Amino acid sequence: RRLERQARRYRGGGRRLLPAFELIATIVQSAPGDDGDHSQRQTRTTIRRYLRAARAHRALLILDVQPGLAPFMREVRAFERFLREPDVSLALDPEWSLAPGQLPGRQIGSTDAATVNQVSRYLSRIVREGRLPQKLLVVHRFTHDMIRDDERLKPQPGVALTVNVDGFGDQPNKIAKYREFTRARRDRHHGFKLFYREDTNL
Question: What Rg value do the Cα atoms of the chain yield, rounded?
C-alpha cells in the first residue's frame, strides 16, 4: 500500500509508471561465511515470495547484488533462472564490491566499466534469447571512483543501463552529486535515490 501510494505522486505528464521492489538478493556480511566472501544469497523461496508480491501489484522486481569479495558475474549468474522472467531486473551495488584485504563497512568498494559492461552483455543475451521486455540494469553510485573508467560504459540492446545517484545527505549535496555524474552523459539513463528517513530537508 505504501508503494502504491507513493507511486501515485509521480503520475502525470503522460508518462507510464512502473513501481518496483528492490530486493537485496546477495547481502554483504561482516562475517566471512563459509565461502570467505563476506556475502550471503537470499534463498530461492524468498525471491519467489517477493516476485509473487511484485506481480500481485504489477510491479517490477529488481534483484540487488552486494557481492562482498565475490565477483559480480558469479553472483549475477546465480540468479539466472529469475532474470529469465520478464519482470525481473538487476541492480549492482559497487559500494559493497570489495578487494582482497578489505572489509565491509571499513572501506568503500568499487567496480569498473568493464565489469558493468560484462553484466550488461549477459543481460542483453538473456533478453534476446528469451524475447523478453527490456531489462533495467541499475548501478548504484555515490563517489566518483565507485565506477572506474565510467566513460567506457556501453549501452547494450534490450538493457536500460541506469547509473543511480545513491547515498544519503541533504538537498544541495545530493543535487550537486547528480549533476556531477550526469553532465554530458547521454549514453545511459540517470537515477536519483531518495531515503525517506536518512535524507535531510527532503
Answer: 17
Contacts of 157 (CB under 8 A, 6+ apart): 124, 127, 128
pLDDT in tens, 80-130: 999 999 999 999 999 999 988 888 888 899 999 999 999 999 999 999 999
Chain CA centroid to CA 152, Å: 18
- Report the distance separating Cα 168 and Cα 21, nearest Å: 19
Angle 112-68-200 from CA coordinates, rounded to 5°: 80
The answer to whether 172 and 194 have CB atoms below 8 angstroms apart is: no
Phi (first) and psi of residue 162, to 5 degrees: -130, 115
This prediction has a pTM of 0.93
Question: Of 146, 142, 202, which Cα lies nearest the Cα of 177?
Answer: 142
Cα gap 177→143, rounded to integer Å: 8
Cα–Cα distance for residue pair 94/104, rounded to 1 Å? 11
Tell me the HSE value of 115 on the side-chain side, using a 13 A CA sphere: 21
